[in-house]
Structure formats: C-alpha cells, structure tokens
Amino acid sequence: MDTNRDCLLKEIMSVDFTSIELGLYLNTHPWDQRAIMLFNSSVLKSRMLRDKYEKMYGPLTQQSPNYGNTWKWIDSPWPWEK
C-alpha cells in the first residue's frame, strides 16, 4: 500500500468536493466575490494535484493526459480499487 498515493488521492477528492460545493453555492449567490475566489483557487489546486498524481501514478480518468509511450489507463490498480 502506497500511503503517499492514498494521501494525494484523498487531497484531490477533498479539493474536488470543495469545488463542487462552492459551485452549488454560487448558483444561488453569483455575486459573492469571496466564493468566486475560493472556487477558482480550488479548481486550480485540483488541476495541479491531478497533474502531479497522474505523472506519478497514472491517469485518474480515461480523458487524462497519457504520460509515456503506453496506454496506461488499463494498468492496475485503478484509483477506486483497494
């Protein structure tokens, strides 16, 4: 078990949860500048963390960039496999 991998994946899930919740909030409060700033920040952080994860461990989704010379989407374990 790779604890660094698990920690990074949990951080991605946490940041993505924040983005989703802020997006829902902004649907009813579209002029909240602080929420917009936090939303943008969490989206950028998610992209950065996903890029880091995928370069180290492989793609999170089939639409992720493929780093290297082989199609890594089919490699195990997949993020949801434990």
Automatic annotation (TrEMBL):
Domain Protein CotJB: from-to ranges: 8-81
Domain of life: Bacteria
InterPro entries for the chain: CotJB_dom, Spore_coat_assembly_CotJB
Protein name: Spore coat assembly protein CotJB, domain containing protein
Biological source species: Pseudobacteroides cellulosolvens ATCC 35603 = DSM 2933
